Amino acid sequence: MPESSSPRALWGSRIGFILAAAGSAVGLGNIWKFPYITGNNGGGAFVLVYLICIALVGLPIMMAELMIGRYTRRDAVGAFRTLARPGSPWRLAGWISILAAFVILSYYSVVAGWTLEYILRAVQGAFRTPATTGTVETAEQVRALFDGLIESGPRQLLWHFLFIGVCLGIVIGGVQKGIERWSKILMPLLLGLLALLFVNGMLSDGARQAWVFMFRPDFSKLTSGAVLEALGHAFFTLSLGMAAMITYGSYLSRAENLFASGLRIALLDTVIALIAGLAIFPIVFSAGMQPGAGPGLVFQTIPVVFSNLPGGNILALLFFLLLAFAALTSAISLLESQVAYLIDERDWGRKRATAFLAGLAFLVGIPSALSSNLLQHITPIANLGVFDSIDLIASNYLLPISGLLTALYVGWFWSDQEEKQELMADGSVWIYPLWHFLIRFVAPIAVGIILYYKIEETGLFAFFAGLF
Ligand code: PFF
């Protein structure tokens, strides 16, 4: 078992680790993206496929990442450097995952910034109901609010700056006094807010329709594209392929049972995504609106629905606070993964590393914030704008490539003995053969298929074929 020279920071408690790792997993992906892709893909059958993907692909890879981190006690680059020989392709996995964390943080923070604007608007009473103010917040007004925001470079930059600043403030405090402490505050708040919104959804007229929509599968609505989307989302939502789980695993005590930890984190993430759907769809249905509103579901449809409900402004405030907390605990894991690299591999101090990387994330996020205004005519890839192009590179290529390398390495090249020890500190050997089968065959094949289709979809094969 490799040990590094300096004593490594560890989580202070099991619950602290679970909340921090679940905080990384539960993010905009759960509350913003999961409901809208479920809506776009027709509901129940998509949800079922998504659950299968989490269990058979996401969970085994999450355990593999936690395992690599805890075994090596290093950041993602250092972990693969410790495990693989110089010049071996496995080392690439570490680099790609850190690069993914870097790229994703830069634009994740821009979207997180939008939630801050909505919080401010809610505080100002922008979503007040007609009965209390006499103003009807129409769909047009909400659309104008959203368009006004994305058309304004300076406003988005300001929010992006503030959001990165908050991440910096937390990560600079370190593993226990920064990340763990804040996860223990933010995650219970997030769960409380979600519970309130869930109860509100269940009491509304559309509750039954929402249950049916989400849990009665209609396989005629399931397309092959939906299956791919479910698989890709399972990856993103569990924070896989971007160094986060390797880094968080590296602070985990050897006494912890990795299998049980991975299971708890994935369960929390999944249950929260489902509850977010059950909080959102009932009110969408009771307002007679469509669930397949796309990415605008949360920023455009939901505020309109809220503004027509009694007490809607408070609900809107709670909802956007929930979204901001979820984004924050995810973003800090992206920043921490990069900070760990500078500390472990380059011997930087935490303060300097955090300040440097947060500054860089702000600068690199600028084009994303300007993507829908100043830079709207710039289309680096196909006809996608800057923001979508960066998202495409990170989510469609970097994440699956690093996930595939991780699954292949752990499935085929790491010693079974070491894996068994890592997975089951408590000796519950029964799960090993199942996990090993999934990480060896099922996960690499599934991730390989996503990668193939993503590459084909963006015409990269055709591009290379054209070169010869
Ligand atoms: N899992 C987060 C979400 O669902 O929003 C996104 C994310 C966070 C991805 C942290 C990757 C990561 F390292």
From TrEMBL:
Keyword field contains Ubl conjugation: no
Localization per Swiss-Prot or TrEMBL: Membrane
Alphabetized PANTHER family for the sequence: TRANSPORTER
GO cellular component annotations of the record: membrane
GO terms for MF: symporter activity
Superkingdom, natural source: Bacteria
Record-annotated membrane-spanning stretches: 12-32, 44-68, 89-110, 157-175, 187-211, 231-253, 265-285, 314-335, 355-375, 395-414, 434-453
NCBIfam families in the record: Na_transp
Organism whose genome encodes this protein: Syntrophotalea acetylenica (Pelobacter acetylenicus)
Pfam families named among the record's database cross-references: SNF
Signal sequence range: none
Topological category with respect to the lipid bilayer: Multi-pass membrane protein
UniProt record similarity statement: Belongs to the sodium:neurotransmitter symporter (SNF) (TC 2.A.22) family.
InterPro entries assigned: Na/ntran_symport, SNS_sf, YocR/YhdH-like
Protein name (record): Transporter
Record's keyword terms, sorted: Membrane, Symport, Transmembrane, Transmembrane helix, Transport
